[in-house]
Amino acid sequence: MSRHFKLLLPDEGTDIYAPCEGMSWGYRYGPSIMVHDGICEAWFASPGDGYEADWFTYRRSTDNGRTWSDEVVVLTPTPDSMDWFSVCDPTVIKYGGYYYIGYTSTVYADGGGVCNNAFVARSQNAEGPYEKWTGDGWGEQRGALRWMGRPAPILYFDEPWQNWGAGEPSFVVKDDVLYIYYTWTSKRADGSSYHMTRVATADITREDWPATVRYRGVAAVRTGGGHDSFDVVYCEDLDKFVAISTDKRFTADSMLAIYESDDGISFVRVNEIRANTSFMCHNSGISGDCLHHIRAGDVMLLAYAYGDAWGRWHTRLHRYTFADMEEDFYSDAPQKAIARSLVRFPYPAHPWVTVIAPEQHVYRLHPGDCAEIRLRRFDTCYRTEPVMDGVTFSNYDSSVIAFDGMHVRACGVGYTYVDAWYDGKCARFLVNVYPAETDLSEENRAVTGFRPVCTEYRIRRDENEEKQIRAIVSYGNGTWMEAGGDREPRITYETDAPEIVTVTETGHVTCAGADGTASVTVRCGEYSICVRVVVSSST
User: Over the stretch 399-445, which tens digit does the pLDDT of each residue have?
Assistant: First the structure.
């Protein structure tokens, strides 16, 4: 007889984070929790510095999650890169001596959090430093210098940019296969919205495993915008993949929705849990070991954010257990989530510094120019103070820049990242030095480069998909952007196979009739690139 997963919450749990008294906002959402070797480790999405939307904080427990260490910021965006705006929605596994942390980001900061992609970074230590997957390796090395590197997406959102996109990844390893679960929220060619959790796999035994990521299908169709992302574990006792999510998020009717799968590809809903949960919950995470496995007898924790005002959320931690049940589905529908009083944490007597951050993340200079470096320290309550002295600078290319106290001087043309150290904390920023004749003004928008983000697009006819071709445009003043659609500069598109694909003037691509492969020429001024579009039935 088939056995199915049943989540059990024995009590109401406890808050492990709340905004402090006097704070008008604050959050630690989307936890990724790892339990191994007698410790519990957890990563959370937290506010950034305002320019960068979100950072990741880290805490650990040595008493099975009863008490937790002071938090520290362990991952931030890379300046002037595809993740410059944020790092959101952590998922963490440990394999082969590395912590791998997946996350969400976008370059469309002006779009209200749309056109998201998924990325990954790695480190031999939970607290970093992390190096990011750059598309052809981990991080960037220049001689003895080692930098985090400009990240490339491992899951790129190739549909119209106005939609939410791809992200909120969850990692599970089984039999040396990495399963990657991620949200895909977009619209079909007919304009109808859809909300999916998709699954891809990769060969985790390879150091370059992000290069092996392969789409495997739709894990589940979510019920709508109120149905949150999946965090997935593999339950060894039941030989099933188990996913936790929140449904009716941000409402008084919120619940934990549990899904399971026999093959890790197709999931069905098996539990709806309201008892002992907090109302208006969202962005949940469930603990697993280094590979995100669970088994009876483990320390089992789950957590989520909740609250009645945007950006002012508590983080609730529960111990959970599970049982096997014979019925296909269980719901505690008569129960209601608890309308809990939101009690602020006392302001700490001695708030600790979690991170230092530059006030300016990217410097654009000419040889001979000097610029003042301003740094700020952030404590756990996000009170900030300027850092005036005691800073050391390292891990930079001395042929490009030099330092005099808190000032940087441009020496030669090129670029370099810089590590700024203060009281054991490190801030990283970028310095670009351009030839003297380069006009660095905002008005210098002459196109100087044009390259694809994605070189091949696949349209599944049966899913009525619509793609959008975009590209990276570089400008004379050293800036760049992902352009396409109705965004400037003007880009044109031409297909060599109109019987296979239709391409609009904004780069929207749909199937025209026949299966096959088309080449689309994309032009921006004097520059052009070609991309492939493959049309086929769903697999």
Answer: 999 999 999 999 999 999 999 999 999 999 999 999 999 999 999 99
Both tokens of 468, joined, read 């959008």
Taking only the tens place, the pLDDT of each residue in 64-93 is 999 999 999 999 999 999 999 999 999 999
Which tokens in the block code for residue 161? Answer: 């940019």
Report the DSSP beta bridge partners of residue 315. Answer: 17, 305
The domain defined by 447-536 folds into Immunoglobulin-like (2.60.40)
Cα distance between residue 470 and residue 484, in whole Å: 5
CB of 8 closer than 8 Å to CB of 285: no
- For the entire predicted model, the pTM comes to 0.97
**In the chain, domain spans:** 4-331, 353-433, 447-536
451: its two tokens: 């390259």
CATH topology assigned to domain 353-433: Immunoglobulin-like (2.60.40)
Cβ atoms of 163 and 114 closer than 8 Å: yes
The CA-atom distances, in angstroms, between 265 and each of 215, 218, 232, 341 are: 10, 7, 11, 39
- The tokens of 478 are what? 């050293």
Say how far apart CA 451 and CA 461 lie, in whole Å.
27
